[in-house]
Amino acid sequence: MTGNALHQLASITNLRHEWDEFWKKAKRQTTKGVDGVSPTDFAKNLTVNLETIRRALLEGYQFSPLIALPFPKPNGKERIICVPTVADRLVQRAIGSRLRRYHDLLRINNDGSFGFLAGTKNKPKGVKAARDYAIALRRKFPYAYKSDITSFFDSIPRNDLGAIVDQSVPTRSLRDLIKGVMACEISASRPEVERKVEAAQIRRGKGVRQGMPLSPFFANLILRDFDRELLKKGYKLVRYADDFLVLANSKEECLEIDSLARNLLSSQRFEIPTLDAENSKTQIRDPNEAVDFLGLSLEPSGDGEYQLAFTDKQLDAIKRKLYRYKDFDEVKRNRLDISTLGKTLDVAVTGYRAAYPSNLVSNFARLEDILSEAKATIFGGIFNKLFGQGSLRNLSPDHRAFLCLNSTELKK
Predict the structure, then answer these.
(1) pLDDT in tens, 289-344
(2) At 80, phi and psi to the nearest 5?
């Protein structure tokens, strides 16, 4: 990035534009970075905060450590999502906007990749576009091969990624900022969170952290040759980050895809789950079978059509993950009080709604029933545990609202 380009990136006009786009989705977020500042806090002193970022970018921006948040997955396990400060999120967004101008130079924009790419009217990108494309492809190519890369983000070789950045990004200042994001690590946290980070095999100095605005860009950059080789062979690829689906005409073709994918990924020191393992994330499905993709089931709906839906197993896993907080002992083990429990539930519910938009999932109403009742049911269960079963029945409507309870729970 030339000095002039750096000034463009750091301009108040550019930063304000990135803030306006960020604020559309962030205004209801309560998650704070390591500095304790939420999006709402940042907005209260917006002019001063943007000026602080502007000066820091021109003088040599330093990224802050990340907050680790265990986020429930539909399979009942947890993913560690790493949250930057609001300022760092804004800077990463600004970097991302500039990188979109270099997609051809970076060789990351292709027909099979959908994450962190600028779409057009004729070629949309993003999660919805990936799911729509998967449905359309399966109507023509009904056999499905699906997999994802084991511990992908935490296994990305930083040296390899840095070399690609050096070769592909045309300006030094931008390269330095990107490498600063690559080097971000998790801040020390509560012991129970530290244990979950350790269990997820996240290691300092290895990989890049998942959850940062630039994380999907790193995925596209390190997997660009993987995409190119599959597409060159004529395979019908749909990839979002490390989750990929390939549609085919036969089981034999799916087996060929499996062999090629393993060879390509092993050359980059990545692995995918074995095909024959029970409950493996690597799957081959015939036209009459559902296949998991991007947290949903891509399944036949009749007459050669396909749809995306939650399975009973996925919904049960979501409900179990949320409703475990109804157990006061679980709340105590996680060292939550009434305030932090409410924030934890808000983050989880917001995350589920964002991950599964209602217009994409045929049975979204079943998830919404779970989410809309979760907070009241959980708080009601805890209060009944603390004060005795039925002790809340005589509360007034105002008292119920104050305690985040609904009438259904009070009748139990």
Answers:
(1) 999 998 889 999 988 899 989 988 888 888 888 888 888 888 888 788 887 888 88
(2) -90, 110
- Distance of alpha carbon 261 from the chain centroid: 23
298's enclosing H/E stretch is strand 296-302
Residue with the two structure tokens 């786009």: 21
CB 151 within 8 A of CB 203: no
What predicted TM-score, i.e. pTM, was given to this entire model?
0.79
Rg (C-alpha) for the chain, rounded Å, is 23
Distance, in Å, from the CA atom of 339 to the CA atom of 404, rounded to the nearest integer, reads 12
- For residue 411, what pLDDT band results from cuts at 50, 70 and 90? very low
**What span, in angstroms and rounded, lies between the C-alpha atoms of 119 and 112?**
12
Instruction: Give the phi and the psi of residue 286 in degrees, each rounded to 5.
Output: -85, 175
Distances (CA, A) of 157 to 81, 92, 185, 267, 270: 19, 20, 15, 12, 9
The per-residue pLDDT for range 240-253, each reduced to its tens digit, is 999 999 999 999 99
The strand pairing partners of 309, in sequence order, are 297
Cross-strand partners of 79? 71
Instruction: Locate 274 and state its tokens.
Output: 């074995």
**SS3 category, 28:** coil
SS3 246: strand
Q: Residue 243 belongs to what H/E stretch?
A: strand 243-248
